[in-house]
Amino acid sequence: MNAQFLYLSEPLTLTFESEVQEQLRLPDGRLGVILNQTYFYPTGGGQAHDTGTLGNARVVDVIKSEDGESVIHILDNEPGSGKLKAAIDRERRIRHMQHHTAQHLLSGCFQQRFDLETLSSSINGYEPTTIDLPDRELNRDNLDSIEELANQIVYENRVVKSYFVPAARIHEVPLRRPPKVDGEIRIVEIDRFDYSACGATHCPQTGMIGAIKIIRTERINQKTRVHFVAGIQAISYFRQYQQIATSLAAAFSTHPSEVVALVNKQSAQLHSAEKELSQLRQATNAIEAQQMLTNALTIGERKIILKTFENRPVSEIRALGNQFKEQTDLVSLLANYDGAKIVLVATCGFQTNLSARELLNQQLTKINGRGGGDDQIAQGGGTATREQFTEFFEQTLDLFKSTGS
Questions:
Q1: 3-state secondary structure at position 140
Q2: What was the pLDDT predicted at 400?
Q3: Is the dihedral of CA 349, 350, 354, 358 positive or negative?
Q4: Per-residue confidence at 333, pLDDT binned at 50, 70, 90?
Q5: What pLDDT, on the 0 to 100 scale, is given for residue 1?
Q6: Cα(7)–Cα(14) distance, integer angstroms
Q7: How far apart are CA 98 and CA 89, in angstroms?
Q8: Domain residues of the chain, as ranges?
Q9: Chain segment 264-303, per-residue pLDDT in tens
Q10: Is residue 228 within 8 Å of residue 125, measured between CB atoms?
Q11: 6-88: what CATH class?
Q12: What topology is assigned to 297-403 in CATH?
């Protein structure tokens, strides 16, 4: 076995001794070393690199050399000299092994049960791993059947073998998909179930995966993407969601199994209450609009309403404007301030000989705001200080008086 790629044969060797064979500076200035032997896994095949320690330094990244013959360990410090103790981050390695082996297993299940080829995958031991399949709708029953088959293989604790096959004999291996490389090809076999060309680290038995759970699917770029967790990450996922369910149950003073029914019931009640509240608001707005019309100023042949609000829902301001625009002799300017932004609604009845859009733009120039609309109703806004809001309608009445008839 090539001393640069010992992880291929001994994925559970996580501590070892080695010597620096070559030291180099990468183009980005980082320090890299090549060891005389290493078990560190370099990024590749959809799987992220190992991290760990080497002598006095932290191994922060691991990559292959340009010729693919060596492993470069990127360090945060000088490692020291002579024989150096090296340690691979155990949990990170195991998480990646669990997820990569689980990906092979799930891909084999999708192939065997639904004849769906894995197009690509992204391995992540700390977030859900993804598998991209041809575009197809998969319902919960489909996914449950895949989970059951995959976890059955996990419980059987089948051996996961790896071996090299010459290119001339690769046709003898029932590969799930053709290899992407030439020459001698490394095969990862889940005993009598799945055969894949792969150069990554894997669990030696399926039982080490622990458990596999499909989280969700989505259809993206004409593909079906499957998100799943396995092993350590699956336990973390289950713990997180158990805490959520338990907390919700405590908040509702009920059992976790009753939370969904209770939330659905309260959601229906809230929807009904919101509908009633909306009807009440419409009635209240109509009364408010009538009061504002009664108190409107009369200048010449026009009625004028200037009104400011604070923290009023913009939808209510717009609703008032929609009522005012029907008044043929009325001009209204309604402004709302939320502490940072002014929203303005302007209306002009067709007998006023004014344009709501032009009136809006005149007002918005004061705050470099923007908006749009037509001659009857227009809306816009912009950021403003409280002082600007307080002075927003100053001199507006004088403008109407000078144009009134």
A1: helix
A2: 76
A3: positive
A4: very high
A5: 63
A6: 9
A7: 14
A8: 6-88, 93-247, 254-295, 297-403
A9: 999 999 999 988 988 888 888 889 999 999 999 999 889 9
A10: no
A11: mainly beta
A12: Diaminopimelate Epimerase; Chain A, domain 1 (3.10.310)
Instruction: State percent of the chain over pLDDT 90.
Output: 83
The tokens of 266 are what? 């309260």
SS3 per residue for the chain: CCCCCHHHCCCCCCEEEECEEEEEECCCCCEEEEECCCCCCCCECCECCCCEEECCEEEEEEEECCCCCCEEEEECCCCCCCCEEEEECHHHHHHHHHHHHHHHHHHHHHHHHHCCCCCEEECCCCCCEEEEEECCCCCHHHHHHHHHHHHHHHHCCCEEEEEEECHHHHHHCCCCCCCCCCCCEEEEEECCCEEEECCCCCCCEHHHHCCEEEEEEEEECCEEEEEEEEHHHHHHHHHHHHHHHHHHHHHCCCCHHHHHHHHHHHHHHHHHHHHHHHHHHHHHHHHHHHHHHHCCEEECCEEEEEEEEECCCHHHHHHHHHHHCCCCCEEEEEEEECCCEEEEEEEECHHHCCCHHHHHHHHHHHHCCEEEECCCEEEEEEECCHHHHHCCCCCHHHHHHHHCC
Segment 174-225, tens digit of pLDDT: 999 988 777 899 999 999 999 999 999 999 999 999 999 999 999 999 999 9
Q: Is 266 exposed, middle or buried (0-12, 13-18, 19+ CB in 10 A)?
A: exposed
Q: Residue 46 corresponds to which tokens in the numbers above? A: 């959809």
pLDDT at 88: 98
Superfamily of domain 93-247 in CATH is Threonyl-trna Synthetase; Chain A, domain 2 (3.30.980.10)
